[in-house]
Design a protein that fits this description.
The longest helix is centred in the middle third of the chain and has 36 residues. This protein folds into 2 domains: 210 residues, Hypothetical Protein Pfu-838710-001; 282 residues, CHAD domain, CATH 1.40.20.10. The protein is an alpha+beta fold.
């Protein structure tokens, strides 16, 4: 458990061995979760054993205490502060949240006299700045970690990369709780970041490993405060007018990948329905980005990217559909008649279908296919796979676009997608349901593209256009939810009635639900037409010249 740190009398800093501290400023690492028995077998794998033949592998006991202000100011600002005891040495570390995808984190370390934090001991200007806003605040221990660590080193076969492997077994602890830790940490010593993902793919092909995108710090804060993992909405990728399309492509793909992986733990936890929703949104945004840059992506790469994203999004689909049905479609009706036998049966059956949907989602994430896809995609992005010369045959137009300023590219694709939406919405009030559905898909594509590129533009027109686009998309989304609900209701009324009700009760309840929402949908058609006219009349924010 966490021990309250006490400064020893006359304590003096102990010299820190060079191999304890990484190069200042940045760490590049990847974590893979595994059962303890798997880690014990993995340490003997040929690629690891051969690279460490004749080298001692003594285990170290690491005790780390993580500090923050009482109101968690550091955590809210994406900063971590810990003091670690290694043997007789004490090392204070400041870390930032993952940057540039999921690998890169700011990291600065200095020796200190004890387990007590000494913020003023940081010598680099950046951690000094990160800690400056809590200079007058008390720092208290929030949680601790105790792990047994074995280190190995692997040189990438046929490459120049050197990776340090840390096999960690132990616990994250608070004063009252503990959570086991069993993971392999890969840290890049030399070479390109893509090497970490290549090695992880090789190891996970032979051993049941799963990427762990959350840091020990993130897990510790969650344990300390008893909160489930929080769903993360998409942030805007950081693009600049001086960027080429090549650079923007890499940043957008990393942005989509981080949005996806940030929500994985929320899906697995299952308590926040927003996790499944955001993970599906991340995958849709990724698929939209692939479509935007399709000319630049080799066909063979595009094939597996589309196949795997379709599979994963489809695996999450039932959980999301039943979440919407239970919470948005069924619950408002059932709340007005809590004793209705038919609605009670529908609720019970819908809850069962929702649990089945989450089992499907969890099973997909647990599959080796998911691990290999996530690692392969991350390697492809880090290695800028779209630029591989062997894949550029017959793609002269795409190669040309890679060197174009991203603003010119954005002008072109936004103009094209806007025109497709206007074409699909002609005679809007008379559109059949299928045509409205197609228009909703085109609006999504336009919305994602506009979200990707909006930071390249300034002025009130950006906010006005995005607001009009969002209102219209939300309206059509409500109609789509009603259409999906109709199919789900058909499944729920199949089969014999449950005890305490009849088939007539079920059918009547299903009619109530559809009648309620069909009436609401009919009433909103007037607002929908008004929002369409508003969108049509809103001036685009991009240049109309294009490239």
């Amino acid at each position: 458990m966490i021990e309250e740190p006490v400064v020893p009398e006359a304590a003096q800093p102990t010299p820190v061995a060079e191999d304890v501290l990484p190069p200042p400023g940045m760490e590049v690492e990847l974590k893979l979760a595994a059962e303890p028995a798997v880690l014990n077998a993995l340490v003997k794998a040929p690629i690891i054993a051969d690279n460490n033949a004749g080298k001692a592998a003594a285990a170290r006991r690491l005790h780390s205490v993580y500090y923050d202000t009482p109101d968690l100011m550091l955590h809210r600002r994406g900063v971590g502060l810990r003091v670690r005891k290694v043997g007789r040495r004490f090392i204070q570390t400041v870390k930032t949240e993952a940057q540039n995808g999921v690998l890169h984190r700011g990291e600065w370390e200095v020796p200190v006299p004890s387990l007590n934090p000494v913020p003023e001991a940081m010598t680099d200007p950046e951690p000094q700045l990160l800690l400056s806003e809590v200079a007058d605040q008390p720092l208290v221990p929030v949680f601790a970690t105790r792990v047994k660590r074995i280190k190995k080193t692997v040189r990438e076969p046929g490459g120049d990369a050197v990776v340090e492997l840390a096999f960690d077994e132990g616990n994250v602890e608070t004063l009252t709780q503990r959570q086991p830790v069993s993971e392999l940490e890969l840290e890049l010593i030399e070479g390109p970041p893509a090497a970490l993902f290549r090695l992880a793919q090789r190891l996970s092909a032979d051993f049941p490993l799963r990427p762990e995108w959350r840091s020990k710090s993130a897990r510790g804060y969650a344990l300390a405060h008893g909160r489930p993992p929080e769903a993360t909405k998409a942030a805007r990728p950081e693009l600049f007018a001086t960027d080429t399309v090549d650079r923007a492509l890499g940043r957008i793909l990393k942005h989509c990948f981080k949005h996806w992986t940030d929500n994985e733990a929320v899906v697995l936890d299952g308590r926040d329905v927003e996790g499944v929703h955001q993970m599906r949104v991340a995958l849709r945004r990724l698929r939209s980005a692939l479509g935007l840059f399709r000319l630049m992506i080799p066909p063979e790469d595009m094939a597996w990217l589309r196949e795997e994203t379709r599979w994963l999004a489809g695996s999450l689909g039932p959980a999301r559909d039943w979440d919407v049905f239970c919470d948005t479609v069924l619950a408002p009706v059932a709340s007005f008649a809590p004793d209705d036998a038919g609605l009670t049966m529908l609720t019970k059956r819908a809850d069962g279908e929702r649990r089945n949907g989450y089992r499907t989602a969890h099973a997909a994430i647990a599959e080796p296919r998911y691990t290999q896809f996530a690692l392969r995609f991350a390697e492809w992005v880090e290695d800028t796979g779209w630029r591989r010369p062997a894949d550029r045959h017959g793609m002269a137009e795409g190669a040309h676009w890679l060197e174009v300023p991203v603003v010119d590219f954005a002008d072109t694709v936004l103009r094209q997608r806007h025109r497709k939406v206007l074409k699909g919405g002609r005679r809007f009030a008379e559109l059949a349901p299928e045509a409205r559905h197609d228009l909703r898909i085109q609006l999504k594509k336009l919305r994602y593209a506009a979200d990707f590129f909006r930071c390249l533009y300034k002025g009130k027109r950006v906010k006005g256009y995005m607001a009009a686009l969002s209102r219209l998309q939300d309206d059509l989304g409500v109609l789509n939810d009603v259409a999906v609900a109709r199919g789900l209701l058909g499944r729920l009324v199949e089969g014999p009635a449950d005890e305490g009700g009849t088939q007539v009760d079920l059918a009547f309840a299903a009619g109530e639900v559809m009648g309620w929402h069909s009436h609401a949908a009919t009433e909103m058609l007037g607002d929908l037409t008004k929002d369409w006219r508003s969108f049509k009349g809103t001036a685009p924010f991009w240049s109309q010249k294009g490239a």
